């Protein structure tokens, strides 16, 4: 079984930067794909960014040009670099990954949410 452990959330001022990390633990052969989601109070959960092992990222229109997703398959770590943060970026952020283990077929896992708050 795989555990995704997030870090990097916190409180920042508008215009600032923050990097979210998610570390995968387990009997991991390969991380196939990574997604970052966020959910603000009263709003639907939103797919913020995604990338596969091909390294070709996709972003929600609301974060294009400001956020960067990355995957380090050697370290089994995934990141979301956020810059030019806006108050509307305030949300609970979640990492998710498709992970192929040595002893199991590829399976989707979710990390615990981490709060990002952007003050105006």
What does this structure look like?
The chain has strands at residues 3-7, 10-13, 18-25, 28-39, 46-52, 58-59, 67-72, 77-82, 91-101, 104-110, 114-119. It is an all-beta fold and 120 residues long.
Short note summarizing the structure:
This protein has 120 residues and is mainly β.
Main sheet makeup: 7 strands, mixed
**Could you tell me the mean pLDDT?**
96
SSE arrangement, N to C: EEEEEEEEEEE
Contiguous low-pLDDT stretches (5 residues minimum) are: none
Structural classification: mainly beta
Beta-strand content bin: over 45%
**Helical proportion, percent range:** under 10%
Compute the separation of the termini in Å: 40 Å
Helical region count?
Answer: 0
Q: Which outline best applies?
A: elongated
- The radius of gyration is 14 Å
User: Could you tell me the number of beta strands?
Assistant: 11
What layout of secondary structure does this protein have?
Blueprint: E1 3-7, E2 10-13, E3 18-25, E4 28-39, E5 46-52, E6 58-59, E7 67-72, E8 77-82, E9 91-101, E10 104-110, E11 114-119
List keywords for this structure.
120 residues, 0% helix, 11 strands, mainly beta
């Amino acid at each position: 079984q795989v555990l995704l452990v997030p870090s990097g959330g916190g409180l920042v001022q508008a215009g600032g930067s923050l990097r979210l990390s998610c570390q995968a633990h387990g009997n991991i052969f390969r991380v196939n794909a990574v997604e970052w989601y966020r959910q603000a109070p009263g709003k639907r959960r939103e797919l913020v960014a995604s990338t596969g092992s091909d390294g070709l990222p996709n972003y929600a229109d609301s974060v294009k040009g400001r956020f960067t997703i990355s995957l380090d398959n050697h370290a089994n770590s995934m990141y979301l670099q956020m810059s030019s943060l806006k108050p509307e970026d305030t949300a609970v952020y979640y990492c998710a990954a498709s992970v192929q283990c040595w002893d199991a077929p590829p399976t989707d896992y979710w990390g615990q949410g981490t709060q990002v708050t952007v003050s105006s």
